[in-house]
Amino acid sequence: MSNPKFTEKKYLVTYSFVTALFMIWGISLSMCDVLNKHFQNVLHLSKSQSGLIQFSVFGAYALMSIPAGMFLKRFGYKRGVLFGLFLFVLGTFLFLPAADNASFSMFRIALFVLGCGMATLETVAHPFAASLGDQRTSDRRINFSQAFNAVGTMIGPAIGTYFLLRATENTNDLSSVKMLYVSIGIIVILFALVFAFVKIPKFADVHAENVEDAMAVNIDTSPNKKLFSHRHFIWSIIAQFFNVAAQAGTWAFFINYVHEKMGFTVQSAGNYMIIFMAMMALGRIVGTYLMKFIAPNKLLASFALGNIICCLLVAQGLGSVSFIALLMINFFFSIMYPTIFSLGLKNLGSHTQQASSFISMGVVGGAILPYFMGKIANVNIASAYYLPIVCYFIIFLFAVKFYKVRLNNSNIK
């Protein structure tokens, strides 16, 4: 059997727009981590209080992912994207009254609405990207799109550091936050208008010749099996919960760690976050290439072990060694989100869109860990990095054992 293509020519325009969505929410998500430090300075918040920024954004996933999946199933991919972009823009414009009133509560509402938009886009974009070509290459397509999400996470800190952290000398300045988010909202409106006129081609049906091929694509070989009877799907939700919990906590206090443990200025720490995010982009490019030779679950297990070691080193506060380990966390984190997502969607057939919304809901883990890491960070920022180790151990278990698809009461690897 010939090697399947990455995608087809007729899907290139649509796939390009879908990939751009990954970059859009990557920019927004990583800017939240700059907001953590900015609001600590401007609104005089503690680290645990600023961790509520992540609670607002990722908490939106818990409430919005399932409705987004229902919307997707009823109205399709294109309208799902446009609905997500509408919520995204609404959230950015809510920064206006929040900044005018210098209200952290109103900022959290704005961030919650923004999170609803991101949750909708993620719920739609992952199965959308997976569908634009042969399903045997869906892992590579999602990881490639996620590489642009990583580019977005580099742009976010660069923008946030330039427009926000430079203004921290004026402890009452919120005008920069207001103008920044309104500008982003206007750009996303223009993107949505262009996407509205894009003609979406019909998706090609995927047919497998035998059981082994069926296991390689997204075809439900047990059509009467209920969604929650698929063990690998349930475990993908659990793994995604702990994965995003680790990500959110690590990102949220990166600037604090570099400022407090390495002695850099806040603005320099923000600039180092660009390198931190670049490591994730590099990891996704390397990971996408390695998946041509290494099974996705095996690569995921290896990267999870890498992050357990890195977190142990970061927690020791060993100066340059810990700083390098902190940067490497994002390299190893790189493939985790899309790989857990694609492994969880395997062999779900007609359940795929609904399953996507549940896996996206697992992102609510990011709402919880930053608060508890912040509590520890109030005392010792380095010790806070012990907590993500638990998360990466759960991911390791999923990658080694619980990713397996069960067919007719047996495991097929």
From TrEMBL:
<dbReference type="InterPro" id="IPR005275">
    <property type="entry name" value="Lfuc_symporter_FucP"/>
</dbReference>
<feature type="transmembrane region" description="Helical">
    <location>
        <begin position="12"/>
        <end position="31"/>
    </location>
</feature>
<feature type="domain" description="Major facilitator superfamily (MFS) profile">
    <location>
        <begin position="14"/>
        <end position="407"/>
    </location>
</feature>
<dbReference type="Pfam" id="PF07690">
    <property type="entry name" value="MFS_1"/>
</dbReference>
<dbReference type="InterPro" id="IPR011701">
    <property type="entry name" value="MFS"/>
</dbReference>
<dbReference type="GO" id="GO:0005886">
    <property type="term" value="C:plasma membrane"/>
</dbReference>
<keyword id="KW-1133">Transmembrane helix</keyword>
<protein>
    <submittedName>
        <fullName>L-fucose:H+ symporter permease</fullName>
    </submittedName>
</protein>
<feature type="transmembrane region" description="Helical">
    <location>
        <begin position="385"/>
        <end position="403"/>
    </location>
</feature>
<feature type="transmembrane region" description="Helical">
    <location>
        <begin position="233"/>
        <end position="257"/>
    </location>
</feature>
<keyword id="KW-1003">Cell membrane</keyword>
<keyword id="KW-0812">Transmembrane</keyword>
<feature type="transmembrane region" description="Helical">
    <location>
        <begin position="269"/>
        <end position="287"/>
    </location>
</feature>
<feature type="transmembrane region" description="Helical">
    <location>
        <begin position="299"/>
        <end position="318"/>
    </location>
</feature>
<feature type="transmembrane region" description="Helical">
    <location>
        <begin position="146"/>
        <end position="167"/>
    </location>
</feature>
<dbReference type="InterPro" id="IPR036259">
    <property type="entry name" value="MFS_trans_sf"/>
</dbReference>
<feature type="transmembrane region" description="Helical">
    <location>
        <begin position="81"/>
        <end position="99"/>
    </location>
</feature>
<feature type="transmembrane region" description="Helical">
    <location>
        <begin position="105"/>
        <end position="125"/>
    </location>
</feature>
<feature type="transmembrane region" description="Helical">
    <location>
        <begin position="179"/>
        <end position="198"/>
    </location>
</feature>
<dbReference type="InterPro" id="IPR020846">
    <property type="entry name" value="MFS_dom"/>
</dbReference>
<keyword id="KW-0472">Membrane</keyword>
<feature type="transmembrane region" description="Helical">
    <location>
        <begin position="324"/>
        <end position="343"/>
    </location>
</feature>
<feature type="transmembrane region" description="Helical">
    <location>
        <begin position="355"/>
        <end position="373"/>
    </location>
</feature>
<feature type="transmembrane region" description="Helical">
    <location>
        <begin position="51"/>
        <end position="72"/>
    </location>
</feature>
<dbReference type="GO" id="GO:0015535">
    <property type="term" value="F:fucose:proton symporter activity"/>
</dbReference>
<dbReference type="InterPro" id="IPR050375">
    <property type="entry name" value="MFS_TsgA-like"/>
</dbReference>
